[in-house]
Amino acid sequence: MKRHRWAKKTDFPLARKSERACYDCPVVKVGRHEAEGPLERDWYEYWRDGVRIDDGHTVPACEPVEVQV
Questions:
Q1: Which terminus of the chain has fewer CB atoms gathered within 10 Å of its CB, N or C?
Q2: Are 6 and 22 in contact (CB under 8 A)?
Q3: What is the count of structural domains for the chain?
Q4: Splitting the chain (69 residues) into consecutive groups of 10 residues, what average pLDDT does each group show?
């Protein structure tokens, strides 16, 4: 299975998240950080074409898109 190659992280401090796009496929890795009182939670979500594609436990496969010329 091919591994993702992530671009540099873009931070969105007001939204409490960061995003990284894969160089080879249209997957975006979103890092979330939320605080509820004394509890803090961090997790990752994976998105493709505006649709969340992860199950919360595993990283989706890197499936490069072929470019038509």
A1: C
A2: yes
A3: 1
A4: 90 92 94 85 91 84 79
